[in-house]
Design brief:
Elements: E1 2-6, H1 10-23, E2 28-33, H2 36-43, E3 50-53, E4 56-57, E5 60-61, H3 62-69, E6 75-80, H4 86-91, E7 96-99
Parallel strand pairs: 1-2, 1-3, 3-6, 6-7
Antiparallel strand pairs: 4-5
Length: about 110
């Protein structure tokens, strides 16, 4: 399986990669992106089975991005520090919702 991580915080990206490597070695992280603009560019040629997506970015909102590009995106696992967006994430067909902080020592 292939995934991408779209998260503007380096430490969170690193923790996600660490946990994936440790517990799910069959999952390949094919891209690490830190803005929604980078995700939009990646979508032109990139493919993945699922993605980890933050909600708050300097260049926009992950939920708004999903609403705009819903048909072009792989399965989504939302990763955010804000529990109040859980219902919105479910409405956007998110397959899971992870609250930060993500600890790589689990």
């Amino acid at each position: 399986m292939k995934c991408i991580i779209v998260e503007d915080e380096f430490l969170i990206r690193s923790a996600l990669i660490s946990q994936l490597t440790k517990y799910f070695p069959e999952i390949e992280v094919v891209a690490e992106l830190d803005t929604l603009a980078a995700l939009e560019v990646w979508m032109e040629n990139g493919t993945a089975d699922f993605m980890f997506l933050d909600i708050h970015f300097p260049d926009g909102n992950g939920i708004d991005f999903v609403q705009k590009h819903r048909q072009s995106l792989p399965y989504i696992i939302f990763v955010t520090a804000y529990p109040q967006f859980a219902l919105d994430a479910i409405r956007m067909d998110g397959i899971d919702y992870i609250l930060k902080p993500v600890d790589d020592e689990v």
